[in-house]
Design goal:
about 170 residues; alpha+beta; three-stranded antiparallel beta sheet; 3 helices; about 15% strand; elongated
């Protein structure tokens, strides 16, 4: 009888039990922090994609091709080719942003919208032959990225959005 009480009071093996309880929690915490870092990186890259897409469009307005609206006609990555004397279209901006790499391009969507006004809200200079693609008109590029979490987390995906507006320079 005393032998049973003595075995119950001994602390041999208690460190192993504590280790077995805490290690899964620490591993889960490590993966949660890593997933949070990947999420922040994906959000940062989505904003970067919108900025770069707007920059690509603003230097390829209607007058970038000598007042003759010539589409860029870029090809999708990995065979991306870039022309410099062309008018950017939505597909060209999508291809350019996908060529930047770094995240899964199949989850990235880029939309290009010429707003048809100047930064002051005037629509007159943005009308005519090349209407919303004219020099001095505003354009908007919106990037959306669907981020997939690790399978351990109950949330399946989060869609991130970023928007950039710029004035067409050429």
């Amino acid at each position: 009888m005393q032998k049973r009480f003595r075995l119950a009071r001994e602390e041999r093996g208690s460190a192993l039990v504590e280790f077995a309880v805490t290690v899964p929690l620490l591993v889960f915490l490590l993966f949660a922090v890593l997933d949070g870092m990947f999420t922040m990186y994906a959000y940062h890259y989505t904003a970067y994609a919108a900025q770069q897409g707007a920059r690509f469009a603003m230097v390829r307005g209607a007058t970038a091709s000598e007042n003759i609206p010539t589409p860029c006609g870029t090809s999708a990555p990995p065979n991306f080719t870039m022309k410099y004397d062309c008018t950017a279209q939505s597909s060209d901006i999508q291809n350019y942003v996908e060529s930047l790499g770094a995240i899964n391009p199949s989850n990235l969507t880029v939309t290009y919208t010429p707003l048809g006004t100047t930064p002051d809200g005037v629509t007159i200079p943005c009308s005519g032959l090349n209407s919303p693609y004219s020099k001095g008109c505003l354009l908007r590029v919106t990037a959306s990225y669907t981020f997939d979490f690790l399978p351990l987390v109950s949330v399946t995906a989060v869609t991130m959005h970023a928007t950039s507006e710029k004035v067409i320079l050429e």
